[in-house]
Write a structure and sequence with these properties.
By secondary structure, the protein is an alpha/beta fold. The protein contains 22 helices and 23 strands. The protein binds 6-O-phosphono-beta-D-fructofuranose (F6P).
Length: 740
């Protein structure tokens, strides 16, 4: 709309300039015409007066002359008269000119000198005048001059009138033209465009057979509509074929899973039962930027994995609203359709007070459970008041879920992660018909470690409300079962891997999470030019390493930086030839431990850089800000080596994302043995992140690996992710939960 107003504005400016130029010419012509007329009339009048004045002048009858002058004063446009002798002295003058005769006598003198009529327009006290002087003669020579003053004010009045009427005309024209242009644009372009967009949206949203808006459009768009209609027909056919194919492969879980196949699976196997996804972190965060509202996708492995599933399945995702513009983008039920650019499912936001966030999120979840579950040697902190908030917020989430599922029969409720451990039991108690699953994205430590949690029993009890408790690895399942057997009374079936407590049975199973594969930015990436990108970053080295993490002490970032120092000391040939780019997304920055960690990373980058920097080169570049998935994908593509050195990690999807981005089948992955993904990605170079020398050597091996060997490894890595992508992950969870 802004552009349309700008276009109208430009048109009005152009019209105004044309009208101004036209009016100027008209005014000039009118000015000339009126002046000429006045001049001519003045000459005629002066000549006729001369007949009377000249004899009196010669007879030196001054009194007669004054009487004559007084007689003609103020007659019609004749404002006054004056008679001068040939020395410039005033002989007679009208009263209106008395004070001004000296000012105007120059005109009379010039007329006498030239012996011809002389006139000029002059601004006098009583307005604009035309003064005309003609010489008076005796038989031999010029003896004086007669000057008449004619009122010329009407000329300016007339010219002003022309300006006024033309400007009024311009205003009326401009208004009419603007309204007409806006109307035409709306009628010819905006409306048909809206119609077209609606039509395309319905096509994309698979509303192909029914409810499609009719495509009424004007002749401008007819060729475009023809093309789009033909694409639509082809899409209908392709979708039908894909659906049929997906149906054939439904029973074979290990044949490739796609978004389409998952959709068919939901329709056919789940018989359209609605899925309610629940997590603390939301997939889209809206923020204010000046007067605009933007959104971004948070740096979260959980979001990376779950979002594509929701896009495929539809349904509802319930999560905490955390953006400063989140409240501005929801409806009265706190819901909105997402993804914002291509809505496919509903996001329901739950609002938490600052006190609730402090106790539930920063406190118990991230200062208690997070360090407790990750063996990264950071002590957990447990506070009674945090635990109270954790219980309260879990109750709040449960209440929101119960409200949403009240009209659904046998809904499927999938709860994500450690922030919501108590929710499964709360749901199951009120809605035993619901299928409830909880997936624990982070590690579950051994029972000894977990036993330090003061509220361990309540946590396990809450989780066991679920029909299915999923972990990333078999080891985490074993640790959980061991913890349960140690902490609470229950019946364990080691063969079936089930736990029965108070008459309710939960199945405990590993589901190693994955990502949407093939890479979702494939098409755009085809145009990606790594040389150009490196140039834009001012990086000139031959070898590039990359690390992508939230700024979290579990990610082994400090150990990685130390390994880079060892690498450059051990293999000085790489000094000046290797750049390591660390993408670091700020995370949980209200927590002291995270602030300390961020400072430590910054200092370590500085320290290592100071050891080696030369000729404008430095070994480490730290980009400390949020990056979009598309931006990150570019860094993956240009790296010779990607370092994933977590000290302990449930899965670490960065490793899988790097592999997915490498459709050129090049690049090497260095992967910590303490990540869940190291169980699957065996063709990575597996290292112990605490062993800096080993990581340093792995960097050298990676950089010197032949292209053939790189491709061999990368192919196998990609095969793993292709066979076990997130669509298969969710199908397996859904199949398991519905079969229980
Ligand atoms: O993957 C584990 C996890 O805690 C997710 O639940 C979470 O979304 C992610 O890490 C990032 O953490 P946060 O949501 O606290 O920023």
């Amino acid at each position: 709309m802004k552009q349309i107003f700008a276009a109208v504005f430009v048109i009005i400016i152009i019209i105004s300039l044309i009208v101004a130029a036209f009016t100027l010419t008209q005014v000039q012509q009118e000015d000339q015409g009126l002046k000429k007329g006045l001049e001519q009339r003045s000459i005629l009048l002066a000549e006729s007066l001369k007949e009377t004045v000249q004899p009196n002048f010669i007879n030196k009858s001054d009194q007669q002359l004054q009487n004559l002058v007084d007689k003609f004063e103020d007659k019609q446009r004749l404002a006054g008269m004056a008679i001068y002798d040939n020395k410039g002295g005033t002989i007679a003058t009208s009263s209106s000119l008395i004070t001004q005769v000296l000012k105007t006598k120059k005109i009379a003198e010039d007329a006498m000198d030239a012996d011809t009529a002389n006139g000029d327009f002059v601004e006098l006290n009583n307005g604009k005048m035309y003064l005309l002087a003609i010489p008076l003669h005796d038989e031999k020579s010029v003896v004086g001059a007669l000057m008449i003053a004619q009122d010329a004010g009407y000329i300016d009045t007339r010219l002003n009138e022309i300006w006024r009427s033309n400007l009024l005309g311009l205003f009326i024209q401009a208004s009419l033209i603007s309204i007409t242009i806006l109307f035409i644009i709306r009628w010819l372009i905006i409306e048909p465009m809206r119609n077209l967009v609606k039509f395309l949206k319905s096509t994309r949203a698979e509303d192909l057979e029914e409810n499609s808006p009719s495509l009424l459009t004007n002749f401008f768009f007819r060729p475009l509509v023809k093309e789009i209609s033909s694409i639509r027909r082809k899409l209908i056919k392709a979708r039908f074929a894909a659906t049929e194919e997906a149906k054939l492969g439904l029973e074979k879980l290990n044949s490739t899973w796609t978004e389409q196949r998952l959709k068919v699976f939901i329709k056919d196997v789940l018989k359209d039962r609605t899925i309610f996804m629940v997590s603390n972190r939301e997939p889209y965060i809206h923020t204010k930027k000046g007067r605009n509202i933007n959104y971004y996708i948070p740096a979260s492995g959980m979001v990376t994995a779950i979002e594509p599933i929701m896009e495929a399945c539809g349904g509802m995702w319930i999560a905490q609203g955390s953006g400063d513009a989140d409240k501005l983008t929801v409806d009265e039920e706190d819901k909105l359709r997402v993804p914002p650019d291509e809505p496919k499912y509903t996001l329901k936001r739950v609002w938490l007070s600052e006190k609730e966030k402090a106790g539930y999120y920063y406190g118990f979840s991230n200062e208690g459970l997070w360090p407790l579950c990750h063996i990264a040697y950071t002590r957990p902190t447990f506070r009674k008041e945090d635990w109270e908030e954790y219980k309260n917020v879990n109750g709040k989430f449960a209440q929101n879920i119960l409200n949403e599922i009240k009209d659904y029969e046998r809904p499927i409720v999938l709860i994500q992660d450690f922030q919501l451990a108590l929710v499964p039991k709360m749901i199951k108690n009120s809605r035993p018909d619901a299928s409830v699953g909880i997936f624990w994205h982070i590690p579950w430590p051994n029972s000894e470690s977990f036993s330090v949690c003061p509220w361990k029993k309540e946590i396990i009890d809450g989780m066991l409300g679920a029909d299915l408790v999923g972990f990333q690895t078999q080891q985490h399942c074993n640790n959980f079962i061991e913890t349960v057997s140690r902490e609470i009374e229950s019946l364990l079936d080691f063969e079936q891997l089930t736990i029965t407590r108070n008459g309710h049975t939960s199945c405990i199973k590993p589901f190693p999470i994955s990502i949407a594969f093939p890479n979702r930015f494939k098409n755009k990436d085809d145009k990606f030019n790594s040389m150009k990108f490196l140039k834009s970053l001012n990086i000139k080295t031959k070898y590039i390493g990359v690390g992508v993490d939230r700024l979290d002490y579990t990610k082994g970032i400090l150990e990685r930086l130390k390994a880079i120092e060892i690498f450059l000391k051990r293999y000085p040939a790489y000094v000046g030839n290797f750049t390591f780019i660390q993408i670091a997304a700020p995370s949980r920055s209200k927590i002291k431990e995270y602030q300390r960690f961020t400072e430590a990373v910054e200092k370590e980058v500085e320290r290592v850089n100071n050891l080696f920097r030369k000729n404008g080169w430095k070994p480490i570049i730290l980009f400390k800000r949020h990056h979009t998935q598309e931006e990150i994908s570019r860094f993956y593509k240009l790296a010779n080596v990607c370092l994933v050195t977590s000290l302990h990690d449930g899965m670490n999807l960065v490793a899988k994302e790097f592999v997915a981005a490498r459709n050129d089948e090049k690049g090497v992955l260095i992967l910590s043995q303490f990540t869940g993904s190291s169980r699957e990605l065996k063709d990575a170079l597996i290292i112990n992140p605490y062993n800096g020398e080993q990581t340093a050597d792995a960097i050298k091996v990676a950089l010197e690996l032949s292209p053939l060997e790189q491709t061999k490894r990368m192919k196998k890595l990609r095969e793993v992710i292709k066979n076990y992508n997130v669509y298969r992950w969710s199908a397996e969870i859904l199949k398991t939960i519905t079969n229980l």
